[in-house]
Structures are given as C-alpha cells and as structure tokens.
C-alpha cells in the first residue's frame, strides 16, 4: 500500500513523515498546526518534499535520489477537502460523470450506477450545486472522488463544518465506502469518535512527527 519517508520544510515548520500503511483505513489525529493537511498535500502532489520518498503499491510517486516527482494527475490519489469542491456550473450528474470521463475505461474501479446507489445520490442528480446542503455536497464530492478510480482516498477533515445531524448522515456512507469498495483510505480529523465509528487504526501527528 502506502510507504513514505520524507521531509518537508516551510519557514520554521518541518514535517518528518515516516509511514507504512498496511491497513485499509488509517486515521491521523493531531492538533491544529501539527502538519495533518501538509502531509496529505505532499502525498497527493500539491506540495513537494525536500527529500525522501513516497511509494504507493510499490510505484514511486516521489524520490529525491532519482529526481522523481510524479505529477498530481498521474498519482491516482483522490483528496476530499473540508468543504466540498464541485463545479458550480454543472449539476450533480455532470459533476460525477466528469470524473468518470477522465478515467480510462480499462482503469475504472467503480461504475457510475454503483456509486450513485452506494451514496444514495439518485434524488440529487439533476440538482445544481447551489441547491445542495453541506452534507449532500460532501456526498457528491465523495462520489466524484471514487469515480476518478483512485488507488488511495485521502480525506482532510471531511465532516468539519457539518452539524451533528449531518455528520451522523455522512458517517454511514463513509463506512459503506470502506466496507464495500475496499479502497485504502487515509482519514485526517480532530474527532476521535469519527474514527471509532469507522473502526480505523489511529496514528498521531505531533509537531510534524507521526507516532503510534
């Protein structure tokens, strides 16, 4: 699965990330400013480490010794942010199909109809983005991420900003993604109860270092 040992430095902050992820779902917890989002951005390719390596399924994504830094669009990693990022000029169906069209048919892991059923998106398909609640938009964001057929799904505080009712609606869908797709997931959050619900293994990020 995921193996990394890299260092990223910005200003006076240093992230030393040493990780061998064997679990299907790994949770990362830590206080604000500990480097959780920075870790995910390095993995997906939004940031570049100064040294070290990142490998996914034995495929090198970054390796400073070999001067390799694979572009983000080739890493096959999907990142779900705190706030759903959707194309506002498209309806839900178009947002989902856009992700599917970008994936070669031979590389598709999930079928459109299966994802729509898994996340119960059928009633939302014709809605525009501005007509969605926060919870609905995040479900669409998860669906679009899955339809990009990633090898790894990163979730950066995906329930932040949602009230308790909406969180209780989204967590079962995330659990469905875990149990029915078997897709490896790295889940960053401040809230231990989310990871407990999903029965995730947990690591802690403190002052830029991962600890068990």
TrEMBL record:
Gene3D superfamilies: P-loop containing nucleotide triphosphate hydrolases. It holds the Pfam family ABC_tran. Signal peptide: none annotated. Keywords: ATP-binding, Nucleotide-binding. GO terms for molecular function: ATP binding; ATP hydrolysis activity. Residues 1-211 form the ABC transporter domain. SUPFAM superfamilies: P-loop containing nucleoside triphosphate hydrolases. InterPro entries: AAA+_ATPase (IPR003593), ABC_transporter-like_ATP-bd (IPR003439), ABC_transporter-like_CS (IPR017871), Molybdenum_import_ModC (IPR050334), P-loop_NTPase (IPR027417). SMART domains: AAA (SM00382). It comes from the Bacteria. PANTHER family: ABC TRANSPORTER I FAMILY MEMBER 10 (PTHR43514:SF4). This is ATP-binding cassette domain-containing protein. It comes from Acinetobacter tianfuensis.
